[in-house]
Structure formats: structure tokens, C-alpha cells
């Protein structure tokens, strides 16, 4: 717990972290929708090759996350975040050169490796920068700024990027690389004497060494339970929104790509507008209750998606339904974001904080590995509509599992101190 002058230093460091998050998100928003398009249409990679590049890069990112946990505990979370951002910026800069598929593949790999180091490090860093009573709000605020930056960057990219002008891709990837490098400099220079930048000065106790490592983290039963819930939310939630949802809406619901764009814009708008209000209204809630609410709202989003795809609602009613579905999903995200970063850090011990955040961060790519293939089997089968049933049941069961998890969490984790 921070107090006095040290707390002031931590909160200034957190504001600098927020500023860097926003700058980097604006750059990433410029390029986020276009990677497969860039590899295929501009650099000439086949679609199977582009898919293979992304799959290998995802594995590399997961491996980096696993290595980054103990590395962050050893060298400090701030140093690890700066290192990851430099690697990420280097990868994006290679993509900006347009030098060919081989160079671009290396760029994608470096980008994912850097991202795999950055996310767990930043989550742990934020947890050290702010007092425990304010962590939920801190993670919610960072999530809202991140989505706002990505949304604005995505809107700007529509005015800049064109297949008729390949140089426009080089431009946005160059801006993305520069914005990521700026974030790295903010951390490396601005945070070097702030909490969490370096590893604790105190030597580890012998018992810490003996019980340390990922084995100790996984033996923490409440945390293992949270990991199971987070993986399920990834498989039946985020992994379905990022790709399968759009495929279902177009193929089964007969909607247009323009409506898909409106739906994702609505998702971002809900997060940006409502994130802090939801966090403020739910500040006294049990954390497991927030997980339950997120999972149930995602269940509702999938059911609305299924209703929008009914033949009798083709046209404007169905299109409105699809936009509403992702807006509801975004509302669910505002309930999840205060928990996703704060709960693992509430359970973590200081000398294993990097490992706790690494495993929590790994639930995202694991969900990404399982979710899309599952959706592919369902959407490509004889009854594509079964996809709705499976993902809706999956999130509903996850809601029930979250309620059970609440009975296993220590009281100080389940009922965080109210923000003063």
C-alpha cells in the first residue's frame, strides 16, 4: 500500500501511464483493422499464408507472456514494459517499410512478442502505482482511454488508408511505430524512479525462492478459479466477437459490412461513454458479481444477435439488432474491465506479481486459440445457427461459475475497500 509522498509519486506515474496508453492506442487504432488486408492485398501474401503468419505470431506472443512473468519479477515491471514497447515498435516499423512478405512476417512476430511482454507488465505496474482501494477505477479508466484511442484511430484510418495508395499503409504503420516508441520513452525516462519500475530492493526470503514460480501461482486455488473463468470469457466472449460474430451476421443475418462497422463503433462508444459511470455505480459490488453481470450481458448480446438474424427481421430491424447486440456486449465489457486487472493483483504477492499478471494475460490468447476454431466448426456445419446456442450457453455457464468463484475468493479480494 502506498502512502504519503510515495502515493503522490505513484499517482503521477499512473497519469503518465494513462497518457502513454492514449498516445499508443491512437497509433494502433490506425492499423488494427488492416493487417490481413495489408499482407494480402499490398504485399501479395496468400490468405492461407497470412493466416499462418498470424497464428505463429500468436504463439510467439503467448510464449513471450510466459517468459515475461518471471522476467518482470526479476528486472522490474516498468523496465519490462519499456522493453516490450521497444520490441513492438520495431516490429511495427518493419511493417511500415513495405519491404516484402518476409520482412513483414518478422515485423508481425516482433509486434506480438512485444505485446506479450507489455500487457502483463502494464497491468502489474498500474497495480503498484495506485492504492489498492483505487485499483478498480484505475483499470476501468485505462480500459476506457484505450478503447477511445483505438476508436478515434480507427475512424481516422478510414480517411487515410486506401488500397489504391499502398504508401498510405506505410504511413499509418509508421505513425503506429512512432506512437509506440513515444510510450516506451515515457516509461523509460518518466517512470524510472517511480513505484514498480524496478524490482524491489529487498532480497527474496529463502521461503519466497522455494515456493516461487508458476507452480506457486497455480497452487493458489482462488486464482486458478479466476483463470478458468477468464479463459471461458475469452472463448465464449471476446474470441467470438472478434471475427465469428461478423461472419454470422453477414452469412446468416444478411447484413452488410457497413452495419458491421456501425456495430463495432457502437461497442466502442458504449465503453468510452459509460465505463467510468458503471465503475462508480458498482464500486461497492462484490467482484464476482461484476463477473456475473459481464457474462450475463454477453449472453444477452448473443441472444439479440440470434434474434436479429431471424428471416422475419431482415433489413432495418435486423441491422438495428446487430448494432444493439455489440452495444450490449460493450456494456458487459465495462463490468469486466475493473475486475480483469484488479482481481489478479489483489491475489498476487509482490515477488510473484509479474507471474500472476502473465498468467492472467495469457487467458486472452488461449481464448483466441480455442474460440475461433470452435466457431468455425459450428458456422461451417449443417446448422450454423447452433453457434448462437453454444456461445450463449457458454457465457451463461460462465456466469454461474463466476458466482461459485465468489465463494472461494478471500474477503478482502471479493469485497475491495471503497474508493475514498
Automatic annotation (TrEMBL):
Record bears the keyword Cytoplasm: no
Keyword Mitochondrion: no
Keywords per UniProt: Cell membrane, Membrane, Transmembrane, Transmembrane helix, Transport
Major facilitator superfamily (MFS) profile domain: residues covered: 13-414
Residues in coiled coil: none
Subcellular location: Cell membrane
Annotated SUPFAM superfamilies: MFS general substrate transporter
Membrane topology: Multi-pass membrane protein
PROSITE patterns: MFS
Transmembrane segments: 16-39, 45-68, 80-103, 109-128, 140-161, 167-191, 223-239, 259-278, 290-310, 322-344, 356-379, 385-405
Name of the protein described by the UniProt record: MFS transporter
Species annotation: Amnibacterium endophyticum
Upper taxonomic lineage: Bacteria, Bacillati, Actinomycetota, Actinomycetes, Micrococcales
Amino acid at each position: 500500500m502506498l502512502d504519503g509522498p510515495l502515493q503522490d509519486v505513484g499517482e503521477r506515474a499512473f497519469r503518465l501511464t494513462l497518457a502513454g496508453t492514449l498516445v499508443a492506442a491512437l497509433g494502433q487504432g490506425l492499423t488494427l483493422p488492416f493487417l490481413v488486408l495489408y499482407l494480402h492485398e499490398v504485399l501479395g501474401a496468400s490468405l492461407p499464408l497470412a493466416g499462418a503468419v498470424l497464428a505463429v505470431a500468436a504463439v510467439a506472443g503467448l510464449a513471450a507472456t510466459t517468459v515475461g512473468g518471471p522476467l518482470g519479477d526479476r528486472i522490474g515491471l516498468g523496465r519490462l514494459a519499456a522493453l516490450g514497447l521497444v520490441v513492438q515498435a520495431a516490429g511495427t516499423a518493419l511493417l511500415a517499410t513495405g519491404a516484402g512478405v518476409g520482412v513483414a512476417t518478422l515485423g508481425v512476430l516482433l509486434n506480438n512478442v512485444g505485446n506479450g511482454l507489455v500487457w502483463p507488465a502494464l497491468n502489474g505496474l498500474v497495480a503498484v502505482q495506485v492504492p489498492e482501494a483505487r485499483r478498480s477505477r484505475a483499470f476501468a479508466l485505462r480500459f476506457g482511454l484505450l478503447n477511445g484511442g483505438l476508436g478515434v484511430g480507427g475512424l481516422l484510418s478510414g480517411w487515410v488508408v486506401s488500397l489504391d495508395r499502398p504508401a498510405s499503409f506505410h504511413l499509418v504503420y509508421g505513425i503506429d511505430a512512432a506512437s509506440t516508441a513515444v510510450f516506451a520513452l515515457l516509461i523509460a525516462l518518466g517512470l524510472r524512479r517511480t513505484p514498480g519500475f524496478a524490482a524491489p530492493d529487498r532480497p527474496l526470503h529463502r521461503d519466497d525462492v522455494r515456493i516461487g514460480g508458476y507452480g506457486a501461482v497455480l497452487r493458489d486455488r482462488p486464482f486458478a478459479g479466476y483463470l478458468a473463468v477468464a479463459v471461458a470469457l475469452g472463448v465464449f466472449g471476446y474470441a467470438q466477437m472478434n471475427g465469428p460474430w461478423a461472419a454470422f451476421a453477414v452469412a446468416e443475418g444478411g447484413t452488410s459490412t457497413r452495419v458491421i462497422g456501425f456495430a463495432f463503433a457502437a461497442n466502442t462508444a458504449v465503453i468510452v461513454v459509460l465505463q467510468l459511470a458503471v465503475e462508480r455505480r458498482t464500486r461497492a459490488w462484490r467482484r464476482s458479481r461484476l463477473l456475473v453481470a459481464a457474462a450475463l450481458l454477453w449472453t444477452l448480446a448473443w441472444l439479440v444477435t440470434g434474434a436479429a438474424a431471424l428471416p422475419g427481421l431482415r433489413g432495418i430491424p435486423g441491422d438495428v439488432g446487430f448494432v444493439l447486440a455489440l452495444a450490449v456486449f460493450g456494456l458487459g465489457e465495462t463490468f469486466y474491465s475493473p475486475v480483469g486487472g484488479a482481481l489478479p493483483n489483489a491475489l498476487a504477492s509482490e515477488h510473484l506479481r509479474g507471474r500472476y499478471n502473465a498468467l492472467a494475460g495469457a487467458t486472452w490468447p488461449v481464448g483466441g486459440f480455442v474460440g475461433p476454431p470452435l466457431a468455425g466448426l459450428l458456422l461451417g456445419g449443417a446448422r450454423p445457427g447452433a453457434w448462437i446456442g453454444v456461445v450463449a450457453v457458454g457465457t451463461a455457464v460462465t456466469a454461474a461459475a463466476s458466482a461459485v468463484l465468489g465463494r472461494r475468493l478471500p474477503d478482502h479480494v471479493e469485497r475491495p475497500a471503497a474508493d475514498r
